[in-house]
Amino acid sequence: MSARLLAITLMRKEIFFAILAGALFGLIIAFGIWKANSSIKTNGTTTDNTPTEEVTTPTSVPQVGLTLAKPEDMDVVTQSPITVSGATKPNAWVTISAENKDYVIKADLNGGFEESVDLIGGANELVVTSFDESGNSNTQNLVVVLSSEFAK
Amino acid sequence: MKKIAVIILSIILFSSSLKFLKAQTATSSSESIREKVQEKVTQVLSNPKAYIGTITDISSTTIQVRKFLLDSEGKTGEILQISTNQDTVFVSVGKTTKIIKMADVAIGDFIIAMGYKNGNNVLNSTRILVTEALKPSNRIAVFGKVTKANKSSLEITSLANEKLTLEPNTSISVVDFTDQKETKIKFADIEADDFLIAFGIMNNNVFEARKIERISLTPSASPISTSSPSPKPTATPKTTPSPTP
Asked: Which of A102, A113, A125 comes nearest B70 by C-beta?
């Protein structure tokens, strides 16, 4: 009888330690998942830190996004024409005003645009503007220098 | 007791292997970032740049300029550093273009220095043009609907409901863009309710247009290009030098 009691007590101890180990293991896994999640949030979505009130602060005129891929401000090029390319709102009208010529292009369905633009020798001011059909616009001005002698 | 030891040992081994895996991932990720940064730096350093501005200080091998700004309203350009060496070519651009010496360059001169930037943003110049100071062209493009039209002027209302009087300059180019074709039209052909994109400069609240493009607002799937030269540009150099300075 006493031997049976001893066996039950030992078995209970084993069960208790197994449960304890399981719980510890579970805690470690949960901590790992929490740590990974918080790490992803910090690295990936830091732009969301701004309070909503600040984000929705009204600006005077809504703007169309406009990013120029080529050329960059103050670039030196040795040949004309050059390619002006970038991204804006899909189907937006993009205008490029160069020193001697003006260009109108329409962005594609992804917002991409590209145009061959003639330059004059020396400094060229390029005025690139994007318009959407609601009348919103965005303008970027840049200077590109054409010098065929630079390459020599 | 043995079982407990085995369980604890397993947990320790499992945690260690997780840490090792995490470290491996972090290393490969940082290597990839380092490669990309290196690639970008190489690209930037191999891209020729121009520093444009007025000389504020000059020494035997360095020139300091205040950067020329296209939009200088209420702003002053930053100070830029240019280094020179015995191979740097100095060119005076004016009525005649001639090679000059560095000693001929003085504080207050307007220069266009061309070269390659180093990691400290100092331009290692290979060619420096001494020229007249640049002025912003003030060219703009406007987009709107014609609300009043007559032979000598147009009233355009932008989609933001701003009204603008548009007058053609003497060398205006007027085109219609329909069905992906550009056709020359007359200024008088533009009517009320037409949509326009116009290029020009603002002068006393009147928009002096050098090019007008009549457009259709039908969306298009592919990029459509329309361009035509303006016969006489405003505020542009008279001739295109060949070769360019």
From this structure: A125
Q: Cα torsion for A6, A12, A16, A19, to the nearest 10°?
A: 140
CB < 8 Å & 24+ apart, contacts of B14-22? B15/A28, B18/A32
CATH 2.40.50.320 fits B139-215, yes or no: yes
pLDDT in tens, B43-102: 666 789 999 999 999 999 999 999 999 876 777 889 999 999 999 999 999 889 999 999
Q: Is residue B54 exposed (0-12), middle (13-18) or buried (19+ Cβ within 10 Å)?
A: middle
Looking at domain B48-131, its CATH class is mainly beta
Q: For testing the chain A interface, which of B143, B218, B239 should be mutated: the one with the most A CBs within 10 Å? A: B143
Q: Where are the domains of chain B?
A: 48-131, 139-215
AA identity, residue B230: S
Domains B48-131 and B139-215 share a fold: yes
Interface predicted TM-score (ipTM): 0.72
Q: Say what the pTM is.
A: 0.69
